[in-house]
Amino acid sequence: MSGFNSIFAVASVPMAKLYYEEFKKQMAKDPTKKLRIATIFSYGANEEESDGILDEENSEDASALDSTFS
């Protein structure tokens, strides 16, 4: 296995630790299904817009990306 297969987000560090422990248990049961696990911690809570809807993160034209990565 190389790289990451998915991204998994949780609401808190304690919750991430619980999932990590569960993943370790499941990997111990079946050594053929090993996972690489990495964590990223946000400095603070994400700010929400007053209307509850987040703005688009990138409004630039990304159509050129298709030719870059093909």
From the structure above, extract its key features:
single chain, flat, Restriction endonuclease type I HsdR second RecA-like helicase domain-containing protein, mainly alpha, 70 residues
Alpha carbon gyration radius: 18 Å
| Number of helical elements | 2
The major pleated sheet works out as: none
Helix share bin = 25-40%
Protein name: Restriction endonuclease type I HsdR second RecA-like helicase domain-containing protein
Region (Disordered): 48-70
Domain Restriction endonuclease type I HsdR second RecA-like helicase: 3-62
InterPro entries: HsdR_RecA-like_helicase_dom_2, P-loop_NTPase
Describe the structure concisely for a colleague.
By secondary structure, this protein is mostly helical.
Describe this structure in words.
With 70 residues, the protein is mostly helical. The chain is built from 2 helices and no strands. The chain has helices at 13-29, 65-68. The radius of gyration is 18 Å and the shape is flat. The relative contact order is 0.09.
